[in-house]
Amino acid sequence: MSAAHPPGPATGAASIFDRVLVGVDETPESLVGAAQARVLCAPGGHLAVVAVAETYLAAHAGMAAPLARDVVESDTAAALERACELADPDESRITTGRLVDVLRDECRSAGASLLVVGARPHRRLGAAAFRGHDVELLEDATCALLVARPGWGPSRPSRIVVGVDGSAAARAAESTARLLADRLGAEITPVVPLAAHPDLELLRAEREDGVLATGGVVDAVSHAATESSLVVVGRGSDAARIAHTLRCSVLVLPEAR
pLDDT by residue (tens digit) across 176-219? Predict the structure, then answer.
């Protein structure tokens, strides 16, 4: 007998993430995002890759600024070429500016349903102090955000993990996770943290595949996920901790409207 699915958005598996925007810079991490974006993009959907050469940073090179600018532009152009090989986008282009600002504007103007960036290696304290691009985008992205890490692109995640704590954000995340699992043919693991004091009778009525775990949502999801997993979470107090703590790709959904 198949598990009953909790109610969620009416969006079907075939159309979820039908407009995907990938941000690429000169770092190899952004190429991971390009590969995984193609996997998550809906069949027949539109995938755009925007490479951003952050040439303004060359000013820190002093007298060598012109050379540094040329290097940034060259490396970014090469990254765009490689990203296009991985993602086979419908649209691609290169521009200059600050990565976060460009992606924020592009996301709004294009009506993107998913924004994808590569997760640069950093300590959580460093990310908070130096304002990594994923930190800023987590705070104000108007669409879903994939913080991509190596592990399953360009194939598919081996498992989709979602924390279920009874909140509206968690229910929406589970609905999206199930839609993606159906489309990708991936196993899904809904993790129920006992620290959230769930209604176990309601849990049994709604799903048969929930896994009980000790601790809070962050610890529960961390224990269930591997590097080849995709974790789906709703934007909220735990989203940033999950996105920066885990070693796998994390999909953060926007607040329900």
Answer: 999 999 999 999 999 988 777 667 666 656 677 778 787 888 88
In this structure, what DSSP letter does residue 4 have?
Answer: P
Spatial distance between the Cα atoms of 3 and 8, rounded to a whole number of angstroms: 15
Q: Where would I find the H helices in 153-216?
A: 168-184, 200-206
Cα angle 101, 32, 171; round to 5: 75
DSSP 11-24: --TTTTT-EEEEEE
Q: Is residue 215 left, alpha or beta, with left meaning phi > 0 and alpha meaning psi from -120 to 50?
A: left
- Within its chain, how far is the Cα of 13 from the centroid? 17
pTM: 0.86
Which positions ≥6 away from 44 have C-beta within 8 Å? Answer: 18
Q: Which of 237, 244, 233 is nearest to 170 (CA)?
A: 233
Query: What H or E segment, with its residue span, contains residue 145?
Result: strand 144-148
153, part of any domain: no
Same domain, 197 and 78: no
Question: How many domains does the chain fold into?
Answer: 2
> 160-178 as b/e, with b when 16 or more CB fall inside 10 Å?
bbbbbbeeebbbbbbbbbb
